[in-house]
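Hi R.,

As promised on Friday, here is the backbone we talked about, encoded as structure tokens. Could you run it through your design pipeline when you get a chance and send me back a sequence?
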């Protein structure tokens, strides 16, 4: 079970999470001592240089993973994306592929055929027309974000609607505990470091 937040570089998390006086350049290293995974959403807006990926990888311990975001509608960057995220080495976790438009199986097949087949792909499909696509994703070794029902090689869960009660987290943890494949779970960033409070509590509940 891998639990974390959707990002780490938030000055407003100091001093609630990051100690007062912590330099922003030290945020990632501090975060990685508390959690073992994080969503890397900046890659959905601009693809960083390989050197930036190397610097991130060097700041985290063995066993830590990044979950970079790929905007699926930007098909021209797919090849370059695969090559650059590989710079993370063994710190590369699942890749969240976001498709916000209505169902387009041609685009899906293009992505599945173009991305490195060794990547763990989690498709974030917001439109309701994608219902029923889960078996095709499983066939390709991929998964749909927040799908816990269909067969899949791993799970990718995003918590997007805070606040969460302890009872709600316990119910969600009970479902996840029953899954026998790797699970990656991420809590949405807010101005205060509530995502980290929820993540720590959810991790605690999972370990029961």
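Update: got your reply. Pasting your designed sequence below so it's all in one thread:
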């Amino acid at each position: 079970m891998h639990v974390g937040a959707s990002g780490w570089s938030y000055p407003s998390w100091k001093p609630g999470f990051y100690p007062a006086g912590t330099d922003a350049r030290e945020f990632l290293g501090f975060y990685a001592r508390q959690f073992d995974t994080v969503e890397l959403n900046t890659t959905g807006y601009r693809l960083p240089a390989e050197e930036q990926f190397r610097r991130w990888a060097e700041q985290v311990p063995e066993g830590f993973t990044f979950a970079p975001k790929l905007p699926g509608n930007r098909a021209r960057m797919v090849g370059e994306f695969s090559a650059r995220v590989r710079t993370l080495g063994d710190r590369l976790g699942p890749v969240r592929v976001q498709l916000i438009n209505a169902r387009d199986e041609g685009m899906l097949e293009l992505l599945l055929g173009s991305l490195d087949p060794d990547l763990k792909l989690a498709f974030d499909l917001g439109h309701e027309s994608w219902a029923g696509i889960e078996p095709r994703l499983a066939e390709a070794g991929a998964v749909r974000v927040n799908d816990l029902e269909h067969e899949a090689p791993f799970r990718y869960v995003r918590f997007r609607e805070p606040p969460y009660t302890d009872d709600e987290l316990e119910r969600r943890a009970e479902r996840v505990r029953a899954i026998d494949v790797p699970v990656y779970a991420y809590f949405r960033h807010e101005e205060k470091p509530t995502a980290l409070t929820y993540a720590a509590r959810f991790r605690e509940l999972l370990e029961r």
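One thing I noticed while checking it: The radius of gyration is 17 Å.

Thanks again,
M.
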